Amino acid sequence: MRTLLKSFKTEIDPTLEQKQKIHQTIGTCRFVYNFYLSHNKEVYEAEKKFVSGMDFQKWLNNVYLKEHPEFSWIKDVSSKSVKQSIMNADKAFRSFFKHQTSFPKFKKKGTSDVKMYFVKTDAKAVIYCERHRIKIPTLGWVRLKEKGYLPTTKSGMVIKSGTVSMKAGRYYASVVVEIPDSPSVKNNENEGIGIDLGLKDLAIVSDGKAYKSINKSAKIKKLEKRLRREQRSLSRKLENTKKGESTQKNIQKQKLKVQKLHQRMDNIRTDHINKTVSEIVKTKPSYITVEELL
Fold first, then answer.
1. What one-character-per-residue DSSP string does 44-61 give?
2. In this structure, are residues 174 and 127 in contact, taking their beta carbons and an 8 Å threshold?
3. Sheet holding 193-197, edge to edge
């Protein structure tokens, strides 16, 4: 039987100790990513040579860390996460060489999307998942906030790999699951539909139905007003010349408030889009055509 790979993302509720480990791993991955970028720039300027991710990892473990024991803390976190961070930078370089993206940028603390990566250690290993918790390598059992969403180990589905990420003070686990591919029965006699994406409306379907944009709703407008107020407060704190320890803590608290508002608005918009897509798909059209803006 064929299998498919499907991804799931859900919020987790780690303990204080697990949060510290997540922060440590993500911080190390960000450092190694930036170190690889800077090392590659130095080598290329001196020797006109590109250092691949695999070569950099070998040099880092076998040469650099032995000569610089003060950076031995790199080995305190998951080697799989560190390796994945290096390979992500390697991929960014290769995309740049193919003229697909701009030159790779350094990751900044608090603003860049850096994740903690985990994977099955071998073919026989199992990443266990129960209704209310998941066993993540190096973290152990982590509680899930949304119970019953992730496929459990008892269901027979296999978790191949995953990531742990942070956003606005909340923690998320994304997993890639191997599921059986059940043959689909094609018995759809409905006509196809066309969708016109608009500015005032989210989408206008060829059958005449229009789906309103959530951006004009009272809920979003209220959050936008609150966001402007919190951003002004953050701006005043950043302009404060007396930046002592207490001021820095207040800045971080204010940044978190702004991040939480951005995330809440993003969640509302995403939920609205998902519900709209679901409603359209439930009509079971034979095909869907969406305009392409050039």
1. HHHHS-PPPHHHHHHHII
2. no
3. 210-212, 201-205, 193-197, 288-290
Burial of 105 (0-12, 13-18, 19+ CB in 10 A): exposed
Burial class from Cβ neighbours inside 10 Å (0-12, 13-18, 19+) for residue 86 reads buried
- Is the distance from CB of 260 to CB of 166 less than 8 angstroms? no
Q: Which residues contact 40 (CB under 8 A, 6 or more apart)?
A: 50, 51, 56, 93
β-bridge pairing 193-197 and 170-180: unpaired
Residue 2 burial (CB < 10 Å; 0-12/13-18/19+)? exposed
pLDDT tens per residue, range 90-100? 999 999 999 99
Exposed, middle or buried by CB within 10 Å (0-12, 13-18, 19+), for 93? buried
Cα torsion 222, 227, 228, 233: sign: positive
33-91 pLDDT, tens per residue? 999 999 999 998 888 889 999 999 999 999 999 999 999 999 999 999 999 999 999 99
Token couple for 196: 């016109």
